Amino acid sequence: MPGFATRAIKAASRVPAAPQPPVNVPIYQTSTFEVASAQELAELLEFALPGHSYSRYSNPTHAALEDALAELEGAEACHVTGSGMAAIHGLVLSFLRSGDELVIPRAVYGGVVGLARSVLARAGIAVRSVDTSDPAAVGAAIGERTRLVWLETISNPTTAMADIAAISELAHARGVAVGVDNTFASPYLCNPLALGADAVVHSTTKYIGGHSDLTGGAILGSAEVVGAAREIVINAGGNAAPLEAFLALRGLKTLELRMIRHSSNALAVAEALEGAPGVAAVGYPGLASHPQHALARRTLRDGMSGGMLALELAGGRAAGERFLDLLQVAVHATSLGSVETLCSHPASSSHRQFSDAELAEGGLSAGMIRVSIGLEDPEDLVADLANAAASTGT
Ligand SMILES: Cc1ncc(COP(=O)(O)O)c(C=O)c1O
Q1: Which conformational region is residue 327 in: left (phi greater than 0), alpha (psi within -120 to 50 degrees), or beta?
Q2: Is 155 in the pocket of ligand 1 (CB under 6 A)?
Q3: Is the minimum distance from the CB of 109 to ligand 1 under 6 angstroms?
Q4: In the β-sheet with 368-372, what is the strand arrangement from edge to edge?
Q5: Whole-model pTM?
Q6: What does the pLDDT look like over 309-368, one tens digit per residue?
Q7: Rounded to the nearest whole angstrom, what is the distance from the C-alpha of residue 10 to the centroid of ligand 1?
Q8: Ligand 1 atom having least distance to the Cα of 88
Q9: Is the Cβ–Cβ distance between 210 and 61 less than 8 Å?
């Protein structure tokens, strides 16, 4: 008879039979999986066999999220990662090697600029910033060594939009691929692959999770595109975690309901704040004043525009800082896409990597506030944000 320690480990490792399938995908909180032979493990590690070997490579809870996201984005394949940045890192590096060039939006999530400076520059990859709301400017920026054009469906934080279909067409004509960060739109409002993009990433930390309680990312596209990016994610150690994948799956179930409410709340706030005391401008694709309003109508679902606003305060940076101190309902915090309204000051947080000149070029002023409209009662949000804006000058 084996000793107590041996029996305890064996006894506590028995996976229960579950003849009735659980309604929710379980959290497979295991780093490793038992195999029958060295051959089986070797094949699993090469993805030559269905199944799982080690959770840095794959895990059943990750696989459930990958299947769900692939279906909702209309993608052949998906690989989930530990963060949105791990997804962007894996995807971008899979397209580029030393000497190549990446075209990015001038108004882009600051993490992409951080990636360019701290990782891509070391790898000898050059980055060119361009106004991606103008397809002709993107065409002009594509050079001999350009391999990938990076777009954000709705830019962080300005809400400028890219014409994914037009840019994909002109990039493909030059043999250049297009990758889209669809985080602000979510798979509910837009499916960039159907518009011609080659790859999509999400920070699942945002709308897909939806509750400010996980970090995660996803890469979507053809099996070939996702397979190449997956190799980089695995080797760089950017894997997802089973609990985070479980939370993202739970979030997905209410994504539609949340996006509808985020969109109607954001439109109500945008309309109320446009021209309100203390407010110089409101950037929101659902407003007729937005430069890409017609594009938003064409590419986002059912006239909705999501929950992200760029609020330009009349009093500049000082007003921006004061605005954040005055909030009673909205929370001053970075991140976005959650049930609670989150406000941040991009110039000192998500876009701190930008110089003043880069901020100006990207259409980001030092006084801009990024507002991620949550699911609270719209009247309370309008009152809170209008009051804070009006009080910034006093
Ligand atoms: C548009 C966008 N893409 C990617 C990211 C990075 O996501 P994560 O923080 O999950 O790495 C963010 C984070 O704010 C974002 O706003």
Answers
A1: beta
A2: no
A3: yes
A4: 279-283, 308-313, 368-372, 342-344, 331-332
A5: 0.97
A6: 999 999 988 898 899 999 999 999 999 999 999 999 988 888 888 887 888 888 888 889
A7: 41
A8: 4
A9: no
